[in-house]
Specification:
single chain, 469 residues, mainly alpha
């Protein structure tokens, strides 16, 4: 039975990696196209819109994604109907927000810097993204992946093709608008499909028991999810407001490239967290400890390898007007690594259903991030945002580790492993950043380190082969 769980988790992990790269990596895949057909100002305006989309997605999800893993265990036979209920709950909340936004129209321009059409599109797209993410978590705990791949593929291809057509043929003088509409339509269509299937199967209904189950677990997560989105997105919003759309465009381009690490981390976590829940439920903490040490070391080597080769790769995939931001790939990659480490203590908190404590640490980090951005972007410009992001994610991991100590994380994970790997990556990323303008010496240092990372990864070849099998 344990072998079957391992096999299902591993197989799901491989396909979720593909699905996540398609779904969340759409911005990265399309960079060679859009950095060439959009100016830095248009690109910055669009990414400002996407930053708000990520924040609204967190709001419209109502924290319900955090209830799915527990509901699979607790509700079992009613799991499908429970998912249908929380989907309809999120949709009802979205409709209320949509009506309010069209009633109090002056707030849209004041707070979001968007017109009414863009605001309505933003709300509908955000709900689509929230519902698709919720659906992805459901498929994850069921170790299903085919539907997720299909939706991811549709979103990716539809997003890119429609955006290009709209930019070139419909909005050549408002290229940001063509990109916005092109990114919104596929997600809106997907949300209609998922919601319709649920309604056809289960109807429109209210369930008092489901509501009592979902609210105590999900709603306390909202500050956490919202703060996490602010942590991810608010730097771009502040750069746009404090230094202008062009700098926001350059920063957003490099940030998008660095999120390849985050997407890979999310895909691994999608397979890891259900497996951890099963193992902890079976009192197999030692197995979790051993596997986690291997996984963290492998991810460290992958992150270092990514930082080594990306400066030259960036010059191939993005237009030269964005090259000034390339050195930021190092602190931003460091930030993504800390975001990966944070998932380990967070899973312990989820397992113990301590969603309120999860929110406390994340809210504090989001506030610190906003303050740091306000102070240092004003002094050093948009470059400072990369370093404040890395510092904020380190704090996020640290706070959640301290919180999870209450629930026995020290008996599950070895803190020395996390500390050692963090110090190594901090040292490597700072060396790379400080020597970036040293010409051939910089390239020599980076590719020497890359060879070491690859050799280290080769040590785990049997683990990788077994995982993919």
């Amino acid at each position: 039975m344990q072998n079957d769980v391992n096999t299902q988790a591993g197989k799901a992990g491989v396909y979720y990696t593909i699905g996540n790269f398609l779904l969340k990596g759409v911005l990265f895949f399309s960079l060679p196209i859009f950095t060439r057909i959009m100016g830095t100002g248009d690109f910055g305006y669009y990414n400002n819109y996407i930053a708000y989309e990520q924040i609204f997605t967190a709001i419209f999800g109502l924290g319900m994604y955090g209830t799915i893993k527990n509901a699979k265990i607790d509700l079992n036979n009613q799991f499908e109907k429970y998912f249908s209920f929380v989907s309809q709950l999120c949709f009802l909340f979205t409709i209320i927000v949509l009506i309010t936004a069209n009633w109090i129209t002056y707030l849209n321009g004041y707070f979001l810097s968007l017109n009414q059409f863009e605001t309505n599109l933003l709300i509908l797209q955000s709900f689509g993204a929230a519902l698709l993410y919720l659906y992805g978590v459901k498929l994850n705990v069921e170790f299903k992946y085919k539907s997720y791949i299909v939706y991811s593929f549709f979103n990716t291809i539809g997003n890119v093709l429609l955006s290009v057509l709209l930019i070139v043929y419909v909005f050549p003088n408002q290229r940001y608008l063509g990109r916005i509409i092109g990114s919104a339509c596929p997600l809106i269509i997907i949300s209609i499909i998922i919601l319709s299937r649920n309604v056809i199967r289960d109807g429109i209904f209210f369930n008092h028991f489901f509501l009592k189950y979902a609210i105590p677990l999900g709603i306390p997560l909202m500050p956490h999810v919202l703060s996490q989105s602010l942590l991810n997105q608010f730097d771009r919003i502040m750069i746009n407001k404090m230094t202008g759309a062009s700098y926001a465009g350059i920063y957003s381009c490099i940030y998008t490239i660095s999120t390849v690490i985050q997407v890979l981390a999310g895909a691994v976590e999608n397979a890891w967290s259900p497996w951890v829940f099963v193992k902890l439920n079976s009192k197999l903490e030692l197995e979790v400890r051993k596997k986690s040490e291997t996984m963290i070391d492998m991810f460290l080597m992958a992150t270092i390898g990514f930082m080594c080769v990306m400066p030259e790769t960036c010059k191939i995939i993005i237009d030269s007007k964005y090259w000034d931001g390339i050195p930021l790939i190092f602190p931003l990659s460091l930030a993504m690594f800390f975001a990966f480490l944070y998932t380990f203590p967070a899973n312990i908190e989820y397992y113990h259903k301590k969603t309120s404590t999860i929110s406390a640490g994340t809210v504090l980090c989001a506030i610190i991030n906003i303050v740091l951005n306000y102070v240092f972007i004003g002094i050093f410009g948009y470059v400072a945002a990369a370093f404040t992001t890395a510092a904020s994610y380190l704090l996020l991991f640290s706070f959640h580790w301290l919180i999870a100590k209450t629930y026995g994380i020290s008996q599950i994970y070895d803190s020395a492993v996390f500390l050692k790997n963090s110090l190594i990556l901090i040292a490597v990323s700072m060396i790379f950043f400080l020597t970036y303008n040293c010409g051939l010496f910089s390239i020599f240092i980076r590719y020497l380190v890359c060879v070491i990372a690859v050799i280290r990864l080769f040590k785990y070849r049997k683990v990788l082969i077994e995982f993919f099998k």
